[in-house]
Each structure stands twice: as structure tokens, then as C-alpha cells.
Amino acid sequence: EDQVTQSPEALRLQEGESSSLNCSYTVSGLRGLFWYRQDPGKGPEFLFTLYSAGEEKEKERLKATLTKKESFLHITAPKPEDSATYLCAVQVRSGGSNYKLTFGKGTLLTVNP
Amino acid sequence: EAQVTQNPRYLITVTGKKLTVTCSQNMNHEYMSWYRQDPGLGLRQIYYSMNVEVTDKGDVPEGYKVSRKEKRNFPLILESPSPNQTSLYFCASSLFRGTGLYNEQFFGPGTRLTVL
Description:
The complex is a heterodimer.
Chain A: E1 3-7, E2 10-14, E3 19-26, E4 30-38, E5 45-50, E6 56-59, E7 62-66, E8 70-75, E9 84-95, E10 98-103, E11 107-112
Parallel strand pairs in A: 2-11
Antiparallel strand pairs in A: 1-3, 3-8, 4-5, 4-9, 6-7, 7-8, 9-10, 9-11
Chain B: E1 4-7, E2 10-13, E3 19-25, E4 31-38, E5 42-51, E6 54-57, E7 65-66, E8 76-78, E9 87-97, E10 100-107, E11 111-115
Parallel strand pairs in B: 2-11
Antiparallel strand pairs in B: 1-3, 3-8, 4-5, 4-9, 5-6, 7-8, 9-10, 9-11
């Protein structure tokens, strides 16, 4: 069974204190790993897609990396507006030409001023 | 403006009363999907569709039906809602290539459903 585990469940940082969020996965045949940000009461908002081990993507204070077993979302010098729940999702082939997306439970990030 | 719309945004209903939540996208996306989000359980996929007339079960399909008669619409049907279907529901769409989803999924604003 495909599994996606995010850690920690919650993370509290001071403004400017860099850290990393982890997404580990156990799937057969990864076809992409996605990172999303979700604000309370809103739909997830896309951040990055990673397709192969060694790939890295950056956007402002965020950097996503991928290995064969896990992905990291590095947050450099975070600001209070970076506070949100960060979700990762893995895409696998589920048979024939179908593809399935499985989400982790997310990491709730709080950045204090 | 590129967007995914859902209606209604909020719904309170009673057990057994059939309901439909609509989802529409204006981006000509092949892939559409429904999720439910519950505290402590995260975002779970209910059904998804690769294209018109092509649908498949996600992780939690029991008690739900979908149809994809047009590319832009993907309604979620609860034939006989029960209290355990009280949840926050999201519809999403994405471009799709033969090798899988192409890049980002666009999510709708969510529908908060309460079944009494």
C-alpha cells in the first residue's frame, strides 16, 4: 500500500529561523512528488513538482529536494506570512493509464514574529 | 480568470437526502478529482477522472458517485448521505499527459458539508 508520511506534524519557528520539513514515501513507481501550501479554510495552493531523485526546485524562501525515499522542503529565513500547512503528495501509476495521487497529513508551520 | 468553482460552498442537510456538489473548471484540463479533508486524516481522494467518461476510485469512494459527461464538469453525488460524510470537500483539476499529471493541480475553494 502506498504511504506518505510527513514530519513533524507541527513546527513552530521564530522569524528568520531556517528549518526543513520532511516527506517520506513508500510507493511503487513514483511518477511525481508535489508540494502544496494550504491556508486555513482554503484549497491547497501548488508550490513545486519533483520527478526524479536529485531534482531541486526553488521559490523565494522555499527549496524542495527529492531523493529516492523522501523529499525535503527547506525554509530559509521564514516570515510570519509563511505560516500555513504544507502538504506533500505522491503520484503513482494505478493500473493501465490511470494515475493516483496520495497526500500526506501535512505539517502545520507557525512562524512567530 | 483560470479557476475551479464549486457549489454550494456550505451545505447542511439531513441523513438520506440526496445531494449533488458541482465542480467546474475553465482551463480545459483533462484530469479532475474530488477530495475530502478531515482533521487528523488529511486530504483523501474520493474519485478521479482522466478524461470524459473515464473515472476511477480513489482511497475513500464508498457512499459517493461521480460522472464526467463534459470535460469542464465533474459533479460529486451523495445518494444517501450519512453523518460520517460530514467533511470539507475539494475539487481539483490538472493537465494530464500520458506519463501522468502535468505539474500543478488547481483546487476549488471547498464545500463544507454537514449531514445531520
